[in-house]
Amino acid sequence: MTPFFQFETDFVESLRCIPLVVRYKLDRCGVKLKLQHWHQLSHGERQQLVDQEVETPGAIAAYRALIHRQVLQYAPIPPADLPIPDRFPWQDLTVVPESVQVQGNLLGISLSLSQWQGLTPLQRFALVKLSRSGHENRNFRPACQEFGLMPEDSVG
């Protein structure tokens, strides 16, 4: 099973952009990786960041250390560390985040709490990232289609 979404297919084979699965892991470990840093990494190093798990505290610490080691091979300054919140918006299963509701409403998509709860953590992360203000939201609709959230008459 691929860790990539269908709406990312235009760039994931070459890994020229940071895929959402890596952005998810970066958030989990509190690292701000710039696209410039990503481009300096070899394809193998990028693939390692795709494949490495971040589901336990130890794995999160190992992922952070790996990113720092990789970037410091090519740049004199490590990537910035970010605070890790106790709970990310995509981890909350009691409410659909407002940004997701607003972006969905703009597209005629009303996401129910049960639909939100039925998504994987990575899918919820993607919708939160793709719905942020100031973010190019062009992949929000394709993500909703891929995740089966579109009304039947608006798919296609």
Describe the structure.
- The protein is mostly helical.
- The chain folds into two domains: 8-81, no CATH class; 89-151, no CATH class.
- It has nine helices and two strands; from the N terminus they run H-H-E-H-H-H-E-H-H-H-H.
- The chain has helices at residues 9-12, 20-29, 35-40, 43-51, 57-72, 98-106, 113-118, 121-130, 140-146, and strands at residues 31-32, 80-81.
- A two-stranded antiparallel ribbon has the order 1-2.
- Helix 2 (20-29) crosses helix 5 (57-72).
- The longest helix has 16 residues, at 57-72.
- The model has no long low-confidence stretch (mean pLDDT 90).
Describe the SSE topology.
Elements: H1 9-12, H2 20-29, E1 31-32, H3 35-40, H4 43-51, H5 57-72, E2 80-81, H6 98-106, H7 113-118, H8 121-130, H9 140-146
Antiparallel strand pairs: 1-2
Helix pairs in contact: 2-5
Could you name the key traits of this structure?
about 160 residues, 2 domains, two-stranded antiparallel ribbon, globular
The description of the largest β-sheet is: 2 strands, antiparallel
Low-confidence regions: none
Query: What is the tally of beta strands?
Result: 2
Structural class of the secondary elements?
mainly alpha
β-sheet strand percentage: under 5%
What number of domains?
2
Percent range of helical residues: 40-55%
The strand order across the widest sheet is 1-2
What string, H for helix and E for strand, traces the elements in order? Answer: HHEHHHEHHHH
Global outline: globular
Count every helix, treating DSSP H or I runs of 4 or more residues as helices.
9
Average pLDDT works out at 90
Termini gap: 24 Å
Gyration radius, in Å: 16 Å
